[in-house]
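Slack export, channel: ligand-projects

TW: morning all. Re-posting the request from yesterday since it got buried. We need the structure predicted with the small molecule present, not the apo form. The ligand is zinc ion; the SMILES is in the block with the sequence. No rush, but it would help planning for next week.
GE: picking it up
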Amino acid sequence: MVSAVMSCFRIAVGFVAAVLAASEASAKPKPQPATSAGRSARPLHATGKTGSARASSNNMPRGFTWPPSQAMADAEATCEHDLDAASITWKPAPREGHIADAVTIEDGTLGGIAYAPVYGKGPYKLDCQLALALHAIGPQLYAAGVREVHFGSIYRWSNVRVGGKTKNVLSRHALGLAMDVVSFVDDQGREANVAKDYRKGDPLLLDVEQLIDASSSFRLVLTPKNDPISHKDHFHIEANPSYATAVPRS
Ligand SMILES: [Zn+2]
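GE: finished. pasting the full token output, ligand included:
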């Protein structure tokens, strides 16, 4: 693992209340997510993505259980191995909510992109699977000109909020698998702000939206285009792990 360095990702108890009130956080969910099938079938597939690891009807990743199953534990062990292999400066963090494998990123960098919080100092915990997904898409973001991502929140215990309505479905923020992004900074130092610039057709924001939408590492991206009510001021991006086919690392 890694030496202790300053970070914008380290543990963030208390961050929950500080973030983007306009997104999925308006209703405090019950301690356990809804489990009834079909109640909210495909609530977030606004982008039309058709990944092989499509989520179950309760918005959880395929194979997700709580507490985590052995298959999930195996998948997270593999994920941590992959972070090590990529020389990512991660540390384990205390579990919170339904984060299966909470980690923090010591230098705030994934895939060559610097991640910085808009609110507070952090550090901010996330699931290993989101860290790995951000690492995977990093080179593409970098090639598009992105150098920094300014996020409003990652983990928070909240329900899905989309189209101006809060669903009775646990958000993937509660799993540490989702990030709300307020702005992206390019290689010239220009900040493209979702709330201010997306409607103007900002090319950087449109490129990022397209890249994430096309990436198998991510389940979806919600933007002012596909959810102009609840996501008018940020991009909501979600990692797309599947625990159904996890194979233990030998
Ligand atoms: Zn979100």
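GE: first-pass observations. The first strand starts at residue 90 and ends at 92. Residues 61-239 form a domain with the Muramoyl-pentapeptide Carboxypeptidase; domain 2 fold (CATH 3.30.1380).
TW: perfect, thank you
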